[in-house]
Inverse folding.
């Protein structure tokens, strides 16, 4: 089955009771047992639900994985992965990650004895050098948020595999349309399904896909025990979004390339980070491991933070919003929004300057997006 067909059909079959072509929403908390000690595969929605199971199977197929496990948010998916480890264990992590991830690692999980080392994972040797005897996980985010850095998953996976350390990848920005980390040697792939997978700003959700049976059983245990699961309705809406994922991502890619080139050529723009540009430091890696570049980019204006704020306050079509990956174009100021909880000194050390702007390029007409940015730049 080709990828595009998997988006529409994988894990989904007509309802055996009615023949409904769309999987039903099993909006129920509990399931009646036919007799003591026997169920029909489901007993309580916190543990499992038929609608969520369809989504989990669909996502596993898209990622060329064996098992999918869905959660209430991308952050709860990250947290579930971290619950596979214990006090004293060490994680090597990409230095440019979503601010909520570093907040969770530094302010929550560190209190329970987990240790974290952040490295520039675009240089695989940095990852290898950070490994300790107690290292139990390598966690990558690629392309990263918000600097859009790209890590060589193949190279880092070899480092992890040689050391017996699993490699996890947050692949939210790329989606399985453009990047499938398990095919490149990674052990875990995570998505915030809130973003491109659902694609319409209508739900919050997260997912983890793995091949290893024992790891899957551990994740299912965490899912059942903690209960941070997405609702059947949210799972159903995500499935509807995924049916057009391949179509939407092609448009995000087209528009992203167009807007990145426009910004790179603009006199008021100091730099643009987009993997599809030859000027991107990891363009060669992205071209080798990705089949497209999506719609996420970041850029910095020559006027610094004042210019950045003027631009974001001047746009009319692009919307000032925290999230990303939807059909609407959204613009964000990471230093005061998505990464506000990252200490200023740490942000600067990572290259996340106060003037950085992150743009999630939507699927509107590219002429309209460019015109909106052009008029806003006139006021900078």
């Amino acid at each position: 089955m080709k990828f595009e067909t998997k988006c529409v059909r994988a894990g989904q079959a007509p309802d055996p009771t009615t023949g409904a072509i769309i999987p039903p929403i099993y909006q129920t908390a509990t399931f009646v047992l036919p007799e003591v000690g026997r169920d029909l595969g489901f007993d309580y929605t916190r543990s499992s639900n038929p609608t969520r199971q369809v989504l989990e199977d669909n996502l596993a197929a898209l990622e060329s994985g064996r098992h999918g496990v869905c959660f209430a948010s991308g952050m709860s998916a990250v947290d579930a992965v971290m619950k596979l480890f214990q006090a004293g264990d060490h994680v090597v992590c990409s230095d440019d990650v979503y601010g909520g991830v570093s907040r969770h690692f530094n302010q929550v999980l560190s209190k329970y004895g987990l240790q974290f080392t952040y490295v520039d994972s675009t240089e695989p040797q940095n990852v290898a050098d950070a490994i300790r005897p107690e290292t139990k996980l390598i966690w990558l985010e690629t392309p990263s948020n918000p600097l859009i850095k790209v890590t060589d998953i193949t190279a880092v996976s070899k480092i992890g595999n040689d050391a017996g350390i699993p490699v996890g990848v947050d692949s939210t920005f790329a989606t399985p349309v453009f990047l499938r980390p398990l095919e490149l040697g990674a052990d875990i792939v995570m998505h915030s399904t809130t973003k491109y997978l659902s694609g319409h700003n209508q739900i919050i959700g997260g997912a983890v896909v793995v091949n290893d049976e024992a790891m899957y059983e551990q994740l299912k245990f965490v899912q059942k025990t903690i209960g941070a699961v997405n609702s059947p309705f949210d799972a159903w809406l995500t499935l509807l979004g995924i049916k057009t994922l391949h179509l939407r991502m092609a448009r995000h890619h087209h528009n992203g390339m167009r807007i990145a080139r426009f910004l790179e050529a603009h006199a008021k723009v100091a730099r643009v980070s987009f993997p599809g540009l030859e000027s991107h430091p990891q363009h060669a890696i992205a071209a080798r491991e990705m089949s497209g570049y999506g719609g996420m980019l970041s850029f910095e204006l020559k006027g610094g933070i004042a210019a950045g704020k003027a631009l974001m306050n001047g746009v009319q079509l692009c919307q000032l919003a925290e999230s990303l990956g939807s059909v609407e174009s959204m613009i964000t100021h990471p230093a005061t929004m998505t990464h506000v909880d990252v200490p200023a000194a740490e942000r600067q050390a990572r290259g996340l300057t106060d003037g950085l702007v992150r743009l999630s390029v939507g699927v509107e007409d590219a002429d309209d997006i460019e015109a909106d940015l052009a008029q806003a730049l006139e006021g900078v």
Notes: The two ends are 50 Å apart (CA to CA). The mean pLDDT is 95. Residues 245-264 form the longest helix (20 residues).
